[in-house]
Write a structure and sequence with these properties.
Number of helices: 11
Largest sheet: 5 strands, parallel
Radius of gyration: 23 Å
Strand order of the largest sheet: 3-2-1-7-21
Oligomer: single chain
Shape: globular
CATH architecture of the largest domain: 3-Layer(bba) Sandwich
Structural class: alpha/beta
Number of domains: 3
Helix content: 25-40%
CATH class of the largest domain: Alpha Beta
């Protein structure tokens, strides 16, 4: 970490971005004793809100019924947080430590002692497969899902439609597919990669969720390309794809969801000369090369890692790291990354990162559950647990402690997961 002294009681911390990571930094600073001024600037209209429900409960019940608020309104007042919504930061003056704003309610310029960039990520643009050009949007019948306005527009379209085609077989696409089926829509998923979830999950998890969606009537096309959008007048009528086998298929569609990933909102950082590359580059504490500017959440990337970790757990951990650094307090313990996804009333829970794995063990957990254990050599690196909360809890604990069973022990279905911890603690040979 670059030279930094603990924030004093007269310091001002400005947080840009009203997502989970930004609010978590505010909460951490107050809990760690920061007595100075806290300012939150959000480009969105309302109070900060949870985003995971947008693909699930908010689509099923509407945003009003989903209880999305990250914190109740009185929390901001009681923690002396000044909130500016609909406030767009237009530039950062690093030398003067000031941000420039475009807002009806916020001042045009605001000074900071520490600046936290929590600007998140934006949906990756999807262009017409034939014409190219600008990103397709609502006027074209193509939806994305990143904020509450996106969710409201998609819900209205789903309620008025019968056929949804989803471009992209990542978690957003799969969660929306499950929700759309619950709303009575016919759903097709088109994934360009050889399998769904190829970047984020091992083969066994992909296969499990593929079969789950097929059992609920979803058509999935892996290794497929969208070659054209067919229209009747101004409305989409079908999506033409080329399957992995080379066959041309026309998929009926009233609307399309583009769920092809997200790109970090790092324009502000880039414009003021901070290092960017698949996100704002930070050190282990979340600090940029400017000692007064920090980044957290989906927009931040550790300089020693090629990928950003987009999750609530990571946002919370990064917020704790930044707050501890700003207050010159001890760092929190290292985090084992964790994730979850709810689909069709079931839950997939993941701990760890599987990408370095070269060996996998699959287990049946009860009547409906499955667990997939990822090993790099003899080292456990991740567990994926479908409807198997005990496997997730134990797996996460084992990853945190570095004490876990060998793969061959897990491969024996007769072994009870609880028994290993008891045997290991007692010194009994496995």
């Amino acid at each position: 970490m670059q030279d930094w002294e603990a924030l004093g009681p007269d310091a001002t911390v400005v947080v840009v971005g009203g997502g989970h990571a930004g609010v978590a930094v505010l909460a951490q600073l107050r809990s760690q004793g920061f007595a100075g001024q806290l300012v939150l600037m959000s480009a969105e209209n309302g109070s900060p809100y949870h985003r995971p429900p947008l693909s699930k409960k908010a689509l099923l019940e509407g945003a009003e019924g989903a209880s999305l608020s990250l914190r109740p309104e009185p929390w901001y007042e009681s923690n002396r947080v000044t909130c500016y919504t609909s406030a767009k930061v237009t530039g950062i003056d690093r030398a003067a430590r000031r941000v420039h704003l475009q807002s009806a309610s916020a001042p045009e310029v605001m000074a900071y002692d520490a600046l936290i960039l929590a600007t998140g990520a934006a949906p990756r643009a999807w262009t017409d497969p034939v014409k190219g050009g600008d990103a397709l949007g609502l006027a074209d019948g193509v939806h994305v899902l990143r904020d509450v306005e996106d969710a409201q527009a998609l819900r209205a379209a789903l309620l008025a439609s019968g056929h949804l085609v989803i471009i992209g077989g990542g978690y957003i696409g799969l969660e929306v597919a499950a929700t759309a089926r619950a709303l009575g829509c016919e759903v097709c998923i088109v994934e360009q990669a050889p399998r769904i979830l190829q970047r984020v999950a091992p083969q066994a998890t992909s296969q499990l969720l593929l079969q789950l969606h097929q059992s609920h009537g979803v058509q999935l096309f892996e290794g497929a390309q969208v070659v054209a959008l067919q229209r009747e007048g101004q409305k989409i009528s079908s999506v033409r794809i080329q399957t992995a086998e080379g066959e041309l298929r026309d998929l009926q569609a009233d609307l399309v969801l583009a769920g092809i990933g997200a790109v970090p909102r790092d324009d502000l950082a880039k414009a003021c000369g901070l290092e960017v590359g698949n996100g704002i580059v930070v050190n282990a504490q979340g600090q940029t090369q400017d000692p007064a500017i920090w980044a957290v959440g989906d927009v931040a990337r550790h300089r020693d890692q090629s990928m950003r970790i987009e999750s609530v757990g990571n946002a919370n951990h990064q917020a704790a790291l930044v707050a501890a650094a700003l207050m010159a307090r001890p760092e929190p313990l290292p985090l084992v990354p964790w994730f979850w996804s709810d689909q069709y009333g079931g839950r997939l829970q993941i701990a760890g990162l599987w990408q370095s794995a070269d060996r996998w063990v699959e287990r049946q957990e009860g009547a409906q559950g499955r667990s997939i254990w990822s090993y790099q050599g003899t080292r456990l690196v991740a567990v994926d647990a479908w409807q198997a909360p005990l496997a997730y809890v134990l797996g996460k604990k084992w990853l945190e402690t570095g004490q876990y069973p060998p793969a061959q022990w897990l491969a024996n279905q007769d072994h009870n997961l609880k028994d290993w911890s008891l045997q290991a603690a007692s010194g009994v040979a496995l």
